[in-house]
Structures are given as C-alpha cells and as structure tokens.
Amino acid sequence: MKKPLPMLLLALFWSVTALAAGMELTVGDFSSGDLDGWTTKSFQGMTDYRLVAQDGRLVMEAASKGAASGLVREIRIDLEALPYLNWSWRVNDVLTGIDERTKAGDDYPARVYVIVSGGIAFWRTRTLIYVWSSQQPAGSTWENAFTSNARVMALRSGKGTGWVNEHRDVRADFKTCFNDDITFIDAVAIMTDTDNSQQVATAWYGDIVFSSE
Asked: In the predicted model, what is the mean pLDDT of residues 193-199?
C-alpha cells in the first residue's frame, strides 16, 4: 500500500503541476463533473448541491430552504505562485429584511471561502468569505457575526441579471481584512445558506481556479 504524501510534498506537487499547466490550478472542476476532494459540511440542515446543465455547461447549483451546509475542498495552495482566485457565479434573487452583520441575518445566497488552517491550534484558523450580499453594498467588509476569525467581503449586492466572473488577489484581500500577509491557504469552500432567516435562496457556481495572473 502506498503511503500518503506529506503535506509539504503535496504542496510542492500542486505547485509544480500548476507551473506545468500554465500557472493555473483548477480546484473546482464542476464543468467536467469532477467532484473529487469535495466534502459536505453541515451547520444546520442540508443545502441541496447538484451539478446541472446551464448555458451550455455543467455548473454547481445550490438551493437552500432554511438550511446551511457547504461544500469544502481541503487543498494547500501556494499563493506566491498562484495568488489569484477566479470563479463565476449567478444569483437571481436575494434575501429580504436581513442585516447580514448580525447573527440573525448571517445568511447569503452565495459565498466562496478561502481558509487558512490553524492546525492543532484550531482557534487560529482564519477565513475570508467572499459573498453575494443581499443588503450590504459591494466593496464593503465586516467581521462575521459569529467569530472574529472570519471576515466578510461583499463582491456583489442585490439581485443578479446573469453570470458574473470574479478575479481576486487573495493575498491582497487577506491583507485588507486581517492585516496579515499570507503565503498559503489550506481549503476552499462554497455555501448557500438561509438557516437564520428561514428564507429560500438558489445560486449557481462555475469552476474555481487559482492562477498566477
């Protein structure tokens, strides 16, 4: 039986693979139907995640009815080689009458997480959450209502009109939100959740790719 590669060797492997592939690494290859490495994390009930055909490609559809669960992929990414996170997403309707900066309103039609693990010092784990906000203006940031180790950045706000492409410098955004210059992240996640407001939301996520530029 082959022994698993140590984390450092895995990081090196992914970095070399990215270099060989033109400085890109796809961690969410939804368009090819590949869900290897993705696991479900439930907080309250289950959001329904499934691959669907939309606009000529496979995408991940997330439908939440008063539930909160996410899809997580643990993968160490070298941000010195691949600092940019790219994805597309779509939201038609947003949530009403909530304040997302409070525990009662901490729901989003769409979220993308980047996570820096604290290892055995789990309390040091930090999370940057890119959101499609229902109420807060695009460009705003705030501390998550449940933990100071998570910061929220609204990239979009209000009802959508179709697919939107995102291209984010994760190191720069982490510096903005945490005043810290990180060189690695340890996991990526997506989540559509409505457990606090008990509303209904549906979102769609395209492929998730790290790149050098």
From this structure: 97
Residue whose tokens read 């179709």 = 162
Phi/psi zone of residue 171: left (φ > 0), alpha (ψ -120 to 50 degrees), beta?
Answer: alpha
Q: What 3-state DSSP class applies to 96? A: coil
Q: Nearest 5 degrees, angle CA 159-CA 62-CA 142?
A: 55
Rounded to the nearest angstrom, the gap between the alpha carbon of residue 122 and the centroid of all alpha carbons in its chain is 19
Tell me the CATH number for domain 7-211. 2.60.120.260
Write the pLDDT tens digit of every residue in 126-138: 999 999 999 999 9
pLDDT in tens, 50-90: 999 998 999 999 999 999 999 999 999 999 999 999 999 99
Pairing of strands 150-157, 126-133: parallel
**Contact yes or no for 113/129 (Cβ under 8 A):** yes
- Please tell me the distance from the alpha carbon of residue 97 to that of residue 213, in angstroms, as a whole number: 38
Two tokens at 199? 């509303």
DSSP structural state of residue 5? P
d(CA 57, CA 1): 38
In this predicted structure, what is the pLDDT of residue 24? 95
pTM: 0.88
Give, rounded to a whole angstrom, the gap between the first and last alpha carbons of the chain: 39
